[in-house]
Amino acid sequence: MFENIPQAAPDPILGLTEVYNADPNPEKINLGVGIYQDEQGKTPVLTSVKRAEDLILKQEQSKSYLPIPGSPDYAKAVQTLLFGEDSALRSEGRLFTAHTPGGTGALRVAGEFLKTKTDADTVWLTVPTWPNHGPIFQAAGMKVETFAWFNAETHSFDADAALAAIEQIPEGDVIVLHGCCHNPTGCDPTAEQWRQIAEAVSRRGLMPVMDFAYQGFATGIEEDAVGLRIVAEVCPELIICSSFSKNFGLYRERTGAVTFVTKDADTQGRLASQAKLVVRTNYSNPPSHGGSIVATIFSDQELIAQWHEDLKEMRERLNGMRSLLVSNMASLQSARDFSFVEQQRGMFSMLGLSKEQVAEMGEKHSIHMVGSSRINLAGLSTSNIERFCQALASVL
Ligand code: LMR
């Protein structure tokens, strides 16, 4: 039965780690998978997370199953991050949150829910987008279409093209928007542009799915939720897919959440009953540890303050690397202007290299990045930035 199974292509992002690991060059640089690294190239456990884990170890009484949507304390923490402490959506009973295995799990639950419990069957993704978006929604049985988002010449969000494209999307379809720190471009709309997008989405009768994996990596927790909150103000129904891989550094704990915003509490109750069926037939109920960490941090003001510090340190290092890349390229008198990198936010920017140039960076210089020329800024440090910029200048 297995003998005719064909070889699959390696994953465009996770597959890069294998290429990096196999590279014998001691000076190799890994700019591939979106994992935060500190100046020493380490991905440390955050101080706030370590302290929460100490508490959990002392206090945990049982390893019994969690409820299908996970713990209510975790759901409350997720909703606070999304909509603030005093959210009317919460007090009105319009939110249902389920703890999912990572942001990927959240997207998959959202896709299956939309496909099996609603009339929606087509989802629209930005060009470009995270390479796993399309396969996740396809695996959930949805058709995938794309719409314009990015101007590759100006390296910026193309509001006119995006708005014009949204006006053409058929009513009842689903649109995936990146809450902040667009992956892979690092280009986000302004608050005013978010309002225009939200109004267009609402006018067209589309279902917004907000992929929210980098909250706190652009400017701060509250600031980065501006786009999401505008969409929730304008659109009465939406879905948010959260990931805490990056902002809590919980990558391997697979800590995510899917949050449904409904028109009223009655709809929320019926929707929750159906969403729980989707979870039950997928993974039954979520793993506990990552969610306990987030909920424990949110139960203690000192831990929250520590977590904000941890997050700020990561954010400032990424922004510092952006500035260093730009100044180093300028001092090499590069023919190409890289100042756009400093305007973008989050972990990623796209350098605008051809496939051949990306290959040359990997093969000749041992600098590994995604085929689209997306780089993870966290892979750069004060000790490798010069080597990186010289290699970049040479392939240009
Ligand atoms: C990325 O875009 O690199 C991350 O979201 C990791 C992943 O799973 O692809």
Automatic annotation (TrEMBL):
CDD domains: AAT_like. Transmembrane segments: none annotated. GO terms for cellular component: cytosol. It holds the Pfam family Aminotran_1_2. Its cofactor is pyridoxal 5'-phosphate. Gene3D superfamilies: Aspartate Aminotransferase, domain 1 (3.90.1150.10), Type I PLP-dependent aspartate aminotransferase-like (Major domain) (3.40.640.10). GO terms for molecular function: identical protein binding; L-aspartate:2-oxoglutarate aminotransferase activity; L-tyrosine-2-oxoglutarate transaminase activity; pyridoxal phosphate binding. InterPro entries: Aminotransferase_I/II_large, Asp_trans, PyrdxlP-dep_Trfase, PyrdxlP-dep_Trfase_major, PyrdxlP-dep_Trfase_small. One of its GO terms (biological process) is L-phenylalanine biosynthetic process from chorismate via phenylpyruvate. Keywords: Aminotransferase, Pyridoxal phosphate, Transferase. Residues 27-392 form the Aminotransferase class I/classII large domain. The keyword Transferase applies. Belongs to the class-I pyridoxal-phosphate-dependent aminotransferase family. NCBIfam families: PRK09257.1. PANTHER family: ASPARTATE AMINOTRANSFERASE, ASPARTATE AMINOTRANSFERASE, MITOCHONDRIAL. Homodimer. This is Aspartate/tyrosine/aromatic aminotransferase.
